């Protein structure tokens, strides 16, 4: 924990008005952004495929974007949409 605090406080003057912003930016710089973005895209793509399979593509994308792999469970547990009732075709003249 001390190492993280040292990295977060590196180059920060605690008395400056923007010290909190500098600490925040140092913390954000320590995150593995590439891995986070790649995994998020993977989660959304799998959610889209599962949603397409269940007849709810947009819903699969939204749930996967919001909840990650837990969104997949939501999509899989929801019932398939019922087909809309179509009137019988008109007779040909």
UniProtKB/TrEMBL annotation:
Name under which the protein is recorded: Uncharacterized protein
This protein's UniProt keywords: Membrane, Transmembrane, Transmembrane helix
Highest taxon listed in the record's lineage: Bacteria
Native source organism of the sequence: Dyella solisilvae
Transmembrane segments: 31-54, 60-77
């Amino acid at each position: 924990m001390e190492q993280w605090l040292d990295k977060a406080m590196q180059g920060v003057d605690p008395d400056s008005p923007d010290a909190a912003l500098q600490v925040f930016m140092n913390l954000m710089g320590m995150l593995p952004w590439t891995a986070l973005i790649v995994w998020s895209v993977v989660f959304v793509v799998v959610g889209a495929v599962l949603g397409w399979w269940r007849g709810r593509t947009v819903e699969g994308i939204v749930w996967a974007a919001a909840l990650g792999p837990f969104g997949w469970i939501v999509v899989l547990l929801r019932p398939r949409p019922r087909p809309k009732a179509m009137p019988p075709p008109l007779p040909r003249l």
